[in-house]
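Worked example 2:
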Amino acid sequence: MERVKQLAAHFTGPSQGRAALERKSPDDVVITMAIRSPLCKAKKGGFRDARTDELMLEMYKQSIAHSNIDPSLVGDICVGTVLTPDAMYAARSAAIAAGYPDTVPVQVINRFCSSGLMAVTTIANQIRSGQIEIGLAVGVESMSENPDKGGPAQSELISVNPAACDCKERMGWTSENVASDFNITRAEQDEFAATSFQRAEHAQKSRYFVKEIVPFTVFQKDPSTGERKRVVVTEDDGIRPGTTLEGLMKIKSAFPQWGNGTTTGGNASQITDGAAAILLMSRRKAEELGLKILAKHHTTAVAGVPPRIMGVGPVYAIPMALKNSGISSNEVDLYEINEAFASQCVYTIKKLEIPRDKV
């Protein structure tokens, strides 16, 4: 009878509001494990000498250690990654080396900056459709091994289209376009960045990240001998203690040749090496296995925007996600806007009128 009630509710359409969103159902797609590596400065930080496949191997090992399930129960693994120089053979070989049996398949997805999020969505949709019961979503990137060099050369058949030609331009250019097109000032960007650094410093000192960061054992080269030695990295190394608005205002423009030159190394994200993984399954399966449920995945929304202002995607995707979820903006407690430049975050906040204390 309970199952009949659930089906009846499903076919009469989605309920609206936060209470409906928080209602529990055996068919919910839930997260039972969420872990990440430390996030390290590319070329300079703890993972500067670690290869992409080594980061992946360690992420897989940690996922097995923290999942509290037999790895053979995983129905599929989806790895989100962007800047790899060749086909991602390592996605499967590293999984096997880490201890996943060869019965567990692996796929790779690339939607640039949101590749890790799309890995989550892919696994969630597979569970929701009944294709698998349990899945692992992974995100990994080594900017030390595979630095962003901009888009590749285009065929003349493509580059004759101005919008298509914009796809190969650098991200700094898109940040300056957003700032100039939407009147986002240098002062607004620096203010946002200062708050972000200060919050990150407070979070690290208060040990907020302890439950999500897992130690990573990687190789580092001895600068004097070149020998690769094993080291254990346990903390983010890119947080800048003592950052102030006054200090950020003194930093020179990173791209004075574009727009108003308001983007700097202080109000843009660092180039980072790191990895993360989450385990997803139905609520029914999680309860059957006696696992702690951390969160529920409800929906994902994606939106296309002109390549020259690619960072404004959240302005369009957030309302779509809210509509899909049947809730209003003011019912959300916390927004996390994962854009690389303060210009893009500030524009999103202003355009959608999101209270700053919710970001």
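The beta strands are 29-36, 40-41, 76-80, 106-109, 134-142, 216-221, 228-233, 272-282, 295-297. The chain has 13 helices and nine strands.
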